[in-house]
Design a protein that fits this description.
By secondary structure, the chain is of the alpha/beta class. Helices cover 46% and strands 11% of the residues. It is globular and about 35 Å long. InterPro entries: LMW_PTPase, Ptyr_pPase, Ptyr_pPase_sf, Tyr_phospatase_low_mol_wt.
Length: 167
């Protein structure tokens, strides 16, 4: 399985979710899942994660090896699941999809959070330009949703979640 995690600039939310997902997949013993991240915009291509994002993640025990890259149609085609952070990312990523099959793979990360409401998952707000507590709140929201992704993979329910949140 291949998962693409997407936010706006690929320096705050998506590298954080990528790091959490890699950590949780390893902790669950799930092998054969590749995780990458990208941004819908190209402003930070080649940049490391934002310092407050990586600092909070490292404090929680996550590793960061990713650099910013921009989402392309071929990333959607190659992925089995595309996790976006908010409605804007959802629209932008689906607009890049070259087929309905690729568009169907795109869902908000919040769709996997405990208590997610089908069709209206909670967005992960962009903390860029804010202070450290915004990044703490970001991780507090990302972590349970990522655990939901891992559980959906383990129980073979990813398609069920995609169906529940399809437009």
């Amino acid at each position: 399985m291949r998962i693409e995690v997407v936010c706006l600039g690929n320096i705050c939310r998506s590298p954080a979710a990528e790091a959490v997902l890699l950590h949780e997949l390893e902790a669950a013993g799930l092998e054969g899942v590749e995780v990458t991240s990208a941004g819908t915009g190209g402003w930070h291509v080649g940049d490391p994660p934002y310092h407050l994002s990586s600092a909070e993640g490292e404090r929680r025990g996550y590793r960061f090896e990713t650099v910013g890259r921009q989402l392309r149609p071929e990333h959607l085609t190659a992925a089995d699941l595309v996790l976006v952070m908010d409605e804007s990312n959802l629209r932008d990523a689906r607009a890049l999809a070259e087929t309905p099959r690729d568009a169907r793979k795109v869902v908000m990360l919040g769709a996997f959070a405990p208590g997610a409401v089908p069709g209206s998952p909670e967005a992960v707000p962009d903390p860029y330009g804010q202070d450290a507590p915004a990044f703490t709140a970001m991780y507090d929201q990302i972590e349970p949703a990522v655990r939901g992704v891992v559980e959906a993979i383990r129980s073979d329910r990813v398609d069920e979640v995609l169906d529940a949140h399809a437009d």
